[in-house]
């Protein structure tokens, strides 16, 4: 009894006959004619508000899309270059006639800012022509590769730092790819962010017009440079060089970074099939990391090579990665100009030795 | 199926079309089917577990209600509690118990091999178990009659907006609504949409934005200086509030559109000026559950001081363990319990002094500001234990605060919070503080703004584009799903 007294103030009592009658009265009220008419009126008002909302959303969408299309160089330079590369992939004759060794390099922003095709071609030997097709923030490259192949381009070699590990999406997976859906619905998603950076950067470069022209020139230069792009927007140190003692808390100098490999993945199988169908070799090459970011790897990535031995068109050359002093990086992740030159040189020599059959 | 996914958006819109296209009498059945489909989206086999506990509790409640035989009533109650708490214990605490046994044995010099069953925790089990246990206890105490309709009872357990992370509802509040099938109204649809939008903003524009930073620092706190660990803890305070209250807002909004009212789960807790007030504003449905089914039955505060201290500490220890099977959660709960006891003792002394002098004054601004600072400090230290993976990590984080260091930009960049994202975050936190401040202090202003259709439309469009352009789309789980 003592307990019941205590709880009665806290737990709502069971519905009494009186409250049931009130509920019945309310139910009767919900079903009355006057109530119905009032509700209909307010639904009409709600629908009108919703229509205004939709129109406003559509208007903003059109404005942002228009701005995004009208000012491609107001966005991040590497993003503008990515758009240019996607357009380039559908064009025939990417390689000049007479190019015996036709190399396409794929990867993310590390490859974009790391591989200089001009340097690579000069070092790798006569007849070599390479194109850097890396796209920032994107490691999936098969669609881009297929576009170049469909346009009639015939590479002899693909250079990649990472083999594809994804499975083909099922229809349900497509619904689950929220980021891809959002980017598809709002292609200008990154544009507003980029505008903020653009506005900030423009103070440094003498105004909005000057920066816009500079970005346009950089992208044009990158296309002429066959895809290499120095990512200046993320560089915050003098001379685009990290200090010699640069370290991050996330560095793991005691750990050797292992490559991800999934030979059962749909995308891996798709790459193997493309290599067979179009007669090219896929070469898994070392990546570039800061000294101290990870431990030095073994001189050759024999483990990965063993796992790929069943795939004669996939080759592993050199170690999993090379390390470079912080001074050859412009930010914690990307190589600066001299760093990229050294990395490319080393890569081209490795490629040439591998082609010549020199271990 | 996560509220912050297009998958749920498609599910909900399809469901609404079917729901409003179905005659009112058929809606509960549709709602139950929809709820089961929603739950099966995670792991269909766990739907069987939900069905099993539903049937057991339904049968037990009917048995308890139908007889005056005390022995039978007790058997019914015991059976239900054993099944509910047994399943919760097995899935959630078995590995913790085994590890504790191995650890204790090791302490006494007996080396046992580590054992772990590694059961996958059914999502929402802590929430629906507490909801079921509350129902059974209410029926046992004759506070609520056993529900005769299996359909309505099953709906009470499985109602999809609040199934996986609350609010932990009461049968007296929900079953009457399922039975009445109140029609929705334009006002409900509009406020429901606002709540969904605001909840999404909190989840994907704030919580998910800071999530990589917090996860990165707490994955290896020893690698970061005190400035980073302190910042990560502050951001975690923001993350967990926005994540969980965002979920609750969406749940309440979704239910509201369909004509149902769920209880409010958060009332701007960081505006509290004392820890007692914080707990009246934070996860209200769980706090009131513990109050009604554990604290008050133990004697509550209307008892001797030692017993009240025991009751408070016990409730907070259990509340800590409810959140997870780890010593860190226990410490988190006890920390809050101890602070509340301290606060309670001061309050008792003040009340006694006020009664003696015959005057009771409300605290002035300086005292309220001091109270806010103290509350935030206790809550922040508590979050360290709540978030850390181990006790060692938690202690390391607290120790590191004594040695702050520089905040290098490169680390922000690697932890997915580079310059633009930091600006975006600052803007979002500003909006959050202003709106929560208005909700806490001047809700009338917000209501007035909503009445102006121009302001309302502009705000709705701004919210829509803020979410679309700056939200993190990637179906990141809600933090409370793990509990």
Explain the overall architecture.
The complex is a heterodimer of chains A (359) and B (483). In chain A, α4 runs parallel beside α11 and α6 (117-124) runs parallel beside α14. Chain A folds into two domains: 38-70; 73-355, no CATH class. A five-stranded parallel sheet of chain A has the order 2-1-3-4-6. A two-stranded parallel sheet of chain A has the order 5-7. Helix content of chain A is 50%, strand content 8%. With 359 residues, chain A is α/β, with parallel strands linked by helices. The radius of gyration of chain A is 29 Å and the shape is globular. Chain B folds into two domains: 6-180, no CATH class; 186-269 and 401-482, no CATH class. Helix content of chain B is 73%, strand content 0%. Chain B contains 19 helices and no strands. Classes of the chains: A alpha/beta (359), B mainly alpha (483). At the A-B interface, α1, α2, α3, α9 and α10 of A face α1, α7, α8, α11 and α16 of B.
Characteristic terms for this protein:
heterodimer; A: 359 residues; alpha/beta; 2 domains; five-stranded parallel β-sheet; two-stranded parallel sheet; 14 helices; disordered N terminus; B: 483 residues; mainly alpha; 19 helices; globular
Number of strands of chain A: 7
- The total count of helices of chain A amounts to 14
Mean pLDDT of chain B: 90
Strand order of the largest sheet of chain A: 2-1-3-4-6
Largest interface chains and counts: A-B, 48 and 61 residues
Using the CA coordinates, give the radius of gyration of chain B: 24 Å
Overall 3D geometry of chain B? globular
Strand content of chain A: 5-15%
Which secondary structure elements does this structure contain, and how are they paired or packed?
The complex is a heterodimer of chains A (359) and B (483).
Chain A: H1 2-8, H2 17-30, H3 33-70, H4 77-89, E1 101-106, H5 109-112, H6 117-124, E2 128-132, H7 142-150, E3 157-160, H8 171-176, H9 178-185, H10 189-204, H11 208-224, H12 266-278, E4 281-284, E5 287-290, H13 302-307, E6 314-316, E7 321-324, H14 337-355
Parallel strand pairs in A: 1-2, 1-3, 3-4, 4-6, 5-7
Chain B: H1 6-21, H2 27-40, H3 46-66, H4 70-107, H5 125-140, H6 150-158, H7 171-180, H8 186-219, H9 226-257, H10 275-281, H11 284-298, H12 305-323, H13 327-357, H14 365-387, H15 391-400, H16 409-414, H17 419-441, H18 443-451, H19 453-470
